[in-house]
Amino acid sequence: MGSFTAVLLAVLVQSSSASLFSWKDHPDESFSSGWKDSSAEGVEERIRRAKMELWSRGAFDLDDTSTEMECHDIMDDLDERNHCIASLWERKASLSPMRVGPIKNARRGHVSVGDSACLEFGCDLWTGGLSNDHHGQSLIRNMPRGGGDGGVSLSDSNYQEELEKKLTLLGDTFGKEFRDAIEQNKIEHASDCAESCELFYCAKNDNRAHVEEVLNNTNIKSYSFGSVPPEDFAGAFGFPLDIIKVTEGEPLFSSSEAADVIRKAENEDVDKNEYESGKYKLGGDWLVNLPQTREWFNKRLETTLFPLLAHLFPEIVSRPSVLRAHSVSLLKYNSSHPRTDVHIDNGILAMTLAMTPQSDYSGGGTFFEHMGVDNVLAMDVGHGTFRPGSVRHGGHPVTSGKRYILGAFLLLEDRVEHVRRLKNRGSELRRSDDLDGAEKHFEWALAINPKCTTCLKDWAEILVTRKQFAKAETKIRAALDLLENLDSDALFTLGIILSETGRDEESIQAYKESVSLNADDAELCYNLGIKFGARGDTKAEMTMYARATRIDPNFGGAWINWGTTLAENGNMEDAEVMFLKAIECCPDVAMKAHMNLALVYKTRAESLASGGNNMEGAKAAISDAAKQLESAKPLLMFEHGDDDDADSNRYAAQYKPLRIQCHRLKGQILAGMGDYESCRAEFQQAADQFPDVPGVWNMLARILDLMGKTDEAAQAHAKASALLNGTT
Q1: Angle in degrees, 0-180, between the axes of helices 488-500 and 453-465, rounded to the nearest 10
Q2: pLDDT band for position 89 (50/70/90)?
Q3: Contact 610/670 with Cβ under 8 angstroms?
Q4: Cα separation of 197 and 312, whole Å?
Q5: 217, pLDDT greater than 90
Q6: CA 399, CA 360: separation in Å to the nearest integer?
Q7: Cα angle vertex 231, ends 225, 237, to 5°?
């Protein structure tokens, strides 16, 4: 039997106690009902159920031969041997280590919008999608990649007029609800723009004089936006889509100016604040809370940034006076807050300004997913990156030192982002469980721009939630086709879909492609590790768990599964370390770690007791196992019963049989040491704790018999018989 999942048939102790625990006398208490069925068919069904349970937990290598040989060696009677085999499988199922299951939630397109309180404006995080396949199907067929045909293909001169015509036609198609939604977009846009002017600089005229001075001293390098144009005003951008702009040469502002800004911001406690960015935490704060920093930024908007943005994006910025600063923050990166998630920004335009010299930190820079994992755009202090907001990007990890950047999202007063606003509102509706309303808004957004890949991805996510996997696959593959497979979240979602439909090899390939784009995705490495483990590649499995925990040291599921794999391969010492690490860092998996640690210590006790070699060590080990189970117990009571957490429920179901096994083994060890009274007390504790289990009373009866307490033994035997016969 495997060292971790094996069941101790009888501890090899002193001869006086060996007969006390023969197999026949105490059928497995966790499956006592199975002993009532003596038919061959009943035994086969018990074996089948136990094997299916093991298979569902990831035990794919089931060794029938060794199991049958164990029973053949100790029993001659055929019925007893069959019962032995069935009970061995049932015990293996009840006591096998359990991994934490994979992440099954499809990736939600992450939009960097600000903190959850939305301190500045209506910063909606979109995650929605369409729910039915019959709407909008023709919108995703035969669409060439690139700009110029993304829903509205228009020149700037007649853009507004032609857009209004298209919206009118769509209003005729979709009816009053669509027209009301478009009007709501316009109202919200006007409100956001007006509120922007209360906090940030808004130009009173269109003086472009300073931009010439900037361009005389600063170079602009253009990079590809990828295969899909921005989600709003897509028709305004033609080929090539070289619309990520990065300054080079002379900086936009000096290092001393930046240092003065950071000093004032730190005086305003910017370095003491933190908030969530997808799966990561960032330091920093919003400029609405940093008045001195905001004062500097407003001056730079007037003298440098707005004129420069109008020059860089003439396709959509008609003049500097239409630009509006939306959400603006000063962010701090360091080794404890190293990076952002890959995301898109919640504005038609966005900018990032480097506020710290590169000599002050290691790592850093902006990572654009479609450019490849090794292509990081680094900026020294005073330089900036300017781009449309819908490109997927993230902050590359800072490994040492401290890096500050200022990030801002921008609106255009004379252009309403209907696609973004419909998408955001659809997400809000989805979070409030109005899936029909969310579906309509995503359908409308796709009608304006059929290349809204985030709409397609979120559509797929809703279909995954509804377990409509074939339809979800159609949508996610449509998005990936447009994106030329360069979207790690879309590939992650595809991997989930393929896994849920039983196509494991294809799922592994999708996860591998996702890792190649974003190797620092802990959830992705975790799911890929599970897939490698399922096909028996434990080396690759543990490599993925190691990578996941390096990326996110608080990833409890990865620590648990890494420990389980080590244990299954006989490395109990390292498995113990992994489970202890899970308890230390990850309260969400502490219960599961305690349970698996109990199995490690129980296995250690069995090994130490074998042959009576180290009974004191065995006693200490099984006591440690019991302590771990007692630590897990209150957590089990808290977590058990949540139908949405199948992992916790499976672990909870194992508490009782494992706790009984620990009582039994400790009693065996105590009896082997000649301490019958302590053995009796242990078995009495088991009977008090689990009075409904016949095997517990049989254990107690045997030790009472051996101690000469015949009356008490008879009472215990009677209790066991009554339970077996169903007469209690």
Answers
A1: 30
A2: low
A3: no
A4: 22
A5: no
A6: 11
A7: 55
Higher-confidence residue of 539 and 636: namely: 539
How large is the average pLDDT for residues 158-179? Answer: 89
d(CA 685, CA 451): 67
Runs of H (alpha helix) within 268-413: 291-300, 306-312
* Cβ–Cβ < 8 Å for 351, 304: no
Read off the tokens for 464: 């995954």
Q: Give the H or E element holding residue 477.
A: helix 469-482
SS3 233: coil
Residues 146, 481 contacting (CB under 8 angstroms): no
Whole-number Å distance between alpha carbons of 423 and 428: 9
* 8 A C-beta contact, residue 638 and residue 7: no
Joined together, the tokens standing for residue 134 give 């019959």
Average pLDDT estimate for 229-254: 86
Q: In what order do the strands lie in the sheet with 366-368?
A: 376-377, 366-368, 393-395
Least confident range of 5-14, 90-99, 557-566, 707-716: 5-14
Contact yes or no for 367/376 (Cβ under 8 A): yes
Q: What is the mean pLDDT of residues 214-221?
A: 81
Q: Which amino acid is at 535?
A: R
> Among 237, 241, 259, which Cα is nearest to 316's?
237
∠ CA 199-204-206 to the nearest 5 degrees?
A: 125
To the nearest whole percent, how much of the chain has pLDDT over 70? 75
Task: Give the pair of three-digit tokens for residue 578.
Answer: 């992994």
Q: Which residue has the tokens 């704790």?
A: 689
For residue 324, give the H/E element and its range. Answer: strand 323-333
Q: Using CB atoms within 10 A of its CB, is residue 288 exposed (0-12), middle (13-18) or buried (19+)?
A: middle
Amino acid at 488: S
C-alpha distance from residue 606 to each of 17, 31, 587, 663, 665 (Å): 16, 21, 29, 13, 8
Q: Does the pLDDT of residue 584 top 70, yes or no? A: yes
Taking a C-beta distance cutoff of 8 angstroms, is the pair 493, 476 a contact?
yes
Bridge partners, residue 328, by sequence: 408
Within 291-434, residue ranges assigned H as helices are: 291-300, 306-312, 418-431
Contacts of range 203-209, beta carbons closer than 8 Å, 24 or more positions apart? 203/302, 203/306, 203/320, 203/321, 203/323, 204/321, 205/321, 206/310, 206/319, 206/320, 206/321, 207/307, 207/320, 208/307, 208/310, 208/311, 208/320, 209/307
| Six-digit token string for 728 | 């209690």
Give me the sheet containing 403-412, strands edge to edge.
218-223, 244-249, 384-388, 349-354, 403-412, 323-333, 280-286, 274-277
∠ at Cα 141 (137, 145), nearest 5°? 135
CA angle, 325 then 326 then 328, to 5°:
85
In whole angstroms, give the CA distance from residue 592 to residue 560: 8
Retrieve residue 419's tokens.
Answer: 């696609």
Q: Do the beta carbons of residue 406 and residue 381 sit within 8 Å?
A: no
Query: Each residue of 478-534: pLDDT tens digit?
Result: 999 998 888 888 998 898 899 889 998 898 899 888 888 877 788 888 988 988 888
Residue-wise pLDDT for 409-455, tens only, equals 999 999 999 999 999 998 888 888 888 888 889 999 999 999 999 99
Q: Taking 60 as the threshold, does the pLDDT of residue 181 lie above it?
A: yes
Average pLDDT over residues 28-45: 46
Contact criterion met (CB below 8 Å) for 646 and 101: yes
Q: Residue 204 above 50 pLDDT?
A: yes
Q: What is this structure's pTM? A: 0.65
d(CA 493, CA 459): 11
CA dihedral for 152, 158, 160, 161, sign (positive or negative) = negative
Separation in Å, CA 64 to CA 94, 378, 425: 17, 58, 56
Is the per-residue pLDDT at 377 higher than 90? no
